[in-house]
Amino acid sequence: MTKWRYRSLVLRDLSIAEPKLTAEGEKGWELVSVCLIDSKTARAFFKMAVSDQEPADAVESGTAVVAAAPSA
Hints:
mainly beta; 14% helix; disordered C terminus
C-alpha cells in the first residue's frame, strides 16, 4: 500500500508562480491541485510518496502521511 505525504503552498503572486511550482517539483513534490483564492492568490496542493524506510518523524511540518488505495 502506498503512503503519501501532503503539503500546500500559498501563491500570493500568480505572475511568478511557475518558478515556485517548478522548485517544489524538483524537490520531488507532485502538484495535484490548485485552488484560486482571489485574482492574484492561489493555494497549490502537492503529494509525495513516503518510502518504507523513511522514519515517521522525517515528515516535514505542514504535511501529513495517510494511506492510499493499493497501486495497480
